[in-house]
Amino acid sequence: MNFKVDTKEKFCVIRIEEIQFIDTMSVYLREFCEQKLTEPVKNVILDFSLVEEINDSSIENIAELQQLFYNNQASFVLCNLRDSIQNQMIEFSESLEYSITPTESEAWDIVQMEEIERELLG
Fold it and tell me: Which domains does the chain have, with CATH numbers?
């Protein structure tokens, strides 16, 4: 899987640099992100700006990964999704709530707000 990681103070941005996001990539991403949960900067923003296609099992892996992050008091936000991918994710798992923003900058805001919320709620 080809991706770039940009680590900031409170989160890291993972930019997927593939047009198709398929099973093997989502498994590799899961392993990489699970490792992030053990590091000081454990919040993740996943940038899908280049991704044009995704399969259902990858969507399921992303949903499970997002839940894993929230269960471990960390943020996991998706950004820059094409409408077709966002619709596919919603149709695949209507019962799940994804943290999705239109832009990376809005994803930064979500992570920072969730960090403040976690600090206030102890």
Answer: 3-121 (3.30.750.24)
